[in-house]
Amino acid sequence: MPLPTPYRPRGTRPQHAASAIRETSASVLPLPLPNLAPLAGTLSRGWHLALSRGWHLTLFGVLWLGLIAVVPRHAQGDEPAAEVKPKPALRIRFKKSADRELEIIGQPLVTAQDGGQMILTDEGQLLVVQPETVIARETLAEDFTPIDEEEMCRRLLAELPSGFQIHRTKSFIIAHNALPAYVRWVGTLFDSTHRGFHQYFKKQSWPLEPSRFPLVALVFADRASFDEYARRELGKASETVIGYYNLETNRIITFYVPDAERNVATLVHEATHQLAYNTGLQTRFADNPMWVSEGLAMFFESPHFANPSGWQGAGRVNRVNLLRFRNYQPRRPADSLATLLSDDLRFRSPSTAADAYAEAWALTYFLMRTQKREFIKFLKVLSRGKPLVERDRRERLELFETAFETDLPTLDRKFQAYMNTVN
User: How far is CA 196 from CA 66, 271, 294, 409, 410, in A?
Assistant: First the structure.
């Protein structure tokens, strides 16, 4: 099959926008969470998807539709987190489904009053285990330790169908059934993204953490083999997806795509998500506003075909999203920025998602270019979020306005004026 082209070998401030949002009666729940049973089986619905139409979508199933506790900001990690001490590892055997048992080694991240737990496994997966599904449970003598790359490779080959091979790069493990030459190019692109991601934030005086777990990507030879695997995680949505990062399994899943621009953008976009969640920049299943998650991924994804790998670094103008933002501007409502920041609803509707993604990229680009210090400060606050804890709409807006020391109308005027100069 042909390979993609890039393979070629303070003071007084005006009234907060948050004050314009009517207070709603949200339950304030102390941790531990009251019940994790409704979450069992839904974490696999946490995906960052690259759709065949060229824009990206994050789906969290019912997880983000009211099952997350809303707690006071002081409990959400806005203050620096205390050092985490090692904990003994648990070996748990449980019924994953009616006809499948699973044995894992891990440590609990969240424990609910009903005994349900979110478990971080030694592979880096996040699983919900309900007490009634547990067959055996043992506390081990040793502390919880992530597996090494050798063990990850062994488990991947045991899990995946025959014909899969392992390609290891400096920073990634790629399990694949695709052409080796193509996979080597993918590995080079992933390593470039890894290096560029760390270098970018190091320059902002924020050296990110090394990943605790091996970074895994599955690369399938074609759409058919990809669909066979992805359908188990995405259902029918797999038919319109060309790649995704799964928040539960902590893996990138994609396949060979001959369109060079879409291929590079998808691979870098999903690798950016994976890196963000494995370096301390973001916390999986915490309150990560979608405009931030997707804006950062799009800020990094833009191809650069003068480079042999097809990519040269973050911050290039994203032509696809610039054009979409230009098309959106004439019909952009006055509250567009407030709705983008306060919740994620626009990203979840097919009728508004493309505009939301375009505006998320544009806002990220504007903030990175004009208020980088404040934006990095904002990202650091978000990075201390805790799993299954979210801010309400008012808190999201207040956090944003506090970080940028301005009110939303003023910032929006500057945002629109700046984006009109970008070409």
Answer: 36, 11, 17, 34, 33
